[in-house]
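Limitations

Structures in this collection are predictions, not experimental determinations, and the ligand pose is part of the prediction. Treat each record accordingly. The example that follows, with NAP as the small molecule, is included so readers can see exactly what is and is not provided: the inputs are given verbatim, and the output is the predicted complex.
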Amino acid sequence: MAGRVQGKVALVTGGSSGIGRAAAERLAQEGATVVITDLQDAKGADVVAAIQAMGGKADYLHHDVTQEQAWIEVMAAIKAKHGRLDILVNNAGIGISASVLDMSLADFQRQTAINVDGVFLGCKHGIPLMRTSGDGGSIINISSIAGLKGSAILAGYCATKGAVRLFTKSVAMECANAKDGIRCNSVHPGIIETPIWDSIIGTGEIGDNARAPRSATLDAMTADSVPLGVKGMPEDIANGILWLASDESRYVTGAELVIDGGLTVK
Ligand code: NAP
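Predicted complex:
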């Protein structure tokens, strides 16, 4: 039986860890050739090895998503090796936890460069390659529940994820106007167990998304604040990414896929 993204070529940024790794593995399981990019080269090689061990196809490229020239080189490498791009998962991101009064401008700008500039550059340089096949494509931008509601001590992060939400809808409209068959959607994960939390938890009250005492664990945080009572796993987000990447979601563009155990409902 053909996989759900059989024969498609996918690029997953930040694919060496957490949600990006799970998405790369899930897409490869369902038949995509996956190009994983990240700053973490050794971990990226592990992901490629894991995918190849299960019979999938994957490459790894070192890639800083904040650098426009790096995007040009990544797209050129994908075109040379695979000849097309069908799925772009703009996933690379960081989370810096700080009061707006304490956060340095350098940290605010570094976070914005990765979380927003990286998504902009991905669309800017990914869409032209997607268009060359004439088969359309699917862009999946990873926002957050922090792009839907405010959170004390995460104001800078919320600003970046809110930007990704409306940037995504605008790209969706631009592609729809162009009738290029490219869809663009955002994914809004809740509290998902990945290394990104190492830089967030333990720093104190983090607002309405999850009230957590200093040095709380993800389990303690989610037991209190998530209606389903548990943290999410990277695979929970990867399954949503897979659906948006596949033709099963062919009529979905400019949408927000919230995967948060009900956290933003109450
Ligand atoms: P993660 O495990 O830390 O993975 C992110 C990966 O992106 C890391 O390998 C990271 O490398 C890489 N990266 C950082 N800066 C980069 C750059 N300039 N260029 C290329 N790669 C870069 O975090 P994650 O939780 O899977 O996060 C993935 C996405 O989900 C992020 O956009 C995040 O904001 C979003 N998200 C996560 C959660 C959650 O609960 N985990 C919730 C909502 C949204 P380094 O280790 O070197 O930084």
